[in-house]
Amino acid sequence: MKNLPISLDLQDKKHKGTIGSWITIPHPSIAEIMAKAGFDWLVIDMEHSPISISGAEEMIRVIQLCGIPVLVRVGENNACLIKRVMDSGASGVIVPMVNTMEEARQAVMAVKYPPKGRRGVGLARAQGYGTLFEEYQRWVAEESTVIVQVEHIQAVKNLGEILSVEHVDGVIVGPYDLSASLGIPGQFNHIDMLKALETIKDCIQKRIKPFGFHVVDPDVNAAITKFRDGYSFLAFGVDFLFLGGMSRNMLGSLRESKEKTDL
After folding, report:
1. Is residue 3 one of the residues assigned to a domain?
2. Which residues are catalytic, by number?
3. How many domains is the chain built from?
4. pLDDT tens column, 163-172
């Protein structure tokens, strides 16, 4: 509907999987650049970044004006914070460190209005500043997106129960924290990490809910492997890695060419 948050289809059957990316730099120009790059959706990260609630709202506005769905990864499973980013117009939320069925329920309750949830009712940007409350109420009940983040071995062990929670639309694996919970931070090829990912893969094969993975380092081959493993949506890269990677690659090429031409 006009002026409502843009709904998100995580699986997008036509394209056999969607590709989004991660924003941590608190500036609307970054949001606009990323939104015009062609991603299917974007995530504003409020957990590991200096992005404030007012900054998030401005970035949500910019991304939506580009016609792209936007999720917010909140800093914690906090009903007040989730309510505020939803009132700012987010298409949905990614909630970190959801390790149990009850924590998954809490995330859903924070997004949905009664009777599906316990979210307090306010009139802000998402509700058209009071002009679209009825339309937004219907939208949030049926089309808002709740993604829980699997980034601890406890969550892997409880994955079946987490997936059973109604209105959890999907799960996304956070590889760094998952490896850290095993005592092997960043060691993605360690046997314990591979076992955890294999357990997740078994659930993916059952096709209970859409599964996502954050391919933090923007490696195309790694992303293709995840799609082949059955993941239906991928967060690909991070704004600062794209910026830093392009800078280093282009500068390295220039210096190499300069040395070859003896300038």
Report:
1. no
2. 48
3. 1
4. 999 999 999 9
